[in-house]
Input
Amino acid sequence: MKLLICSLALTATALAQDVSLQSKGKRCIQQRKTPIFNKEVVFALTFEQCEIKCNKKMKCLLFEFQEYDVCILTIVNFETNRFTMFGPANCQHPGIPSKKAPGCEKSEGHPVLEERSLNLWHSSLCINLCEDKNACILWRYNKENTRCTIFKLEVDPLETTPTSEYGRNFCSSVYNGDGLQSAIRTLLKISPPINVQNNKKIYLLE
Output
């Protein structure tokens, strides 16, 4: 009887956690899909331009600005898998970061994604594990084998050239100076930020 009560309690907890996730706009969760990472090379004169190009793409996870005006976007696409789900860390709604999102930072080096896996009995634990680690940028959960995989943003110690700077999407903006924002908008002919939620600035082309 005690085992039955415990089992029912665990099931009720799991259902409650599922409802909680759904009530939060599913927090950008992609159901029955597994992530595929692709690189997209675009033109940008500055780090800030590269950042804005990433911010304007819903599927952009991180960006890297290199010498000679090269901007490399890491785009998350997917393929169908009925057992898996995934989502970016600190994403409250599509294009909007959560309140727990780390501050936007400019880091030096060539970014790489380090993959780490462990078994967890529910997807909510996988999400929490990822979001409790500032370096975690995306999580994936397999319901069939209860395998949680988190992808951590690290710097490749072997890559020294060309000189690179990188940043992540779904972060809280640190560009609070009106002068810098004005200069970026003037250069790219971008309208002032709209839909400002949780310190994230969403830009639209004029």
Summary: The first strand starts at residue 30 and ends at 43. The chain has one domain: 27-202. Residues 1-25, 175-206 have pLDDT under 50 and may be disordered. The radius of gyration is 19 Å.
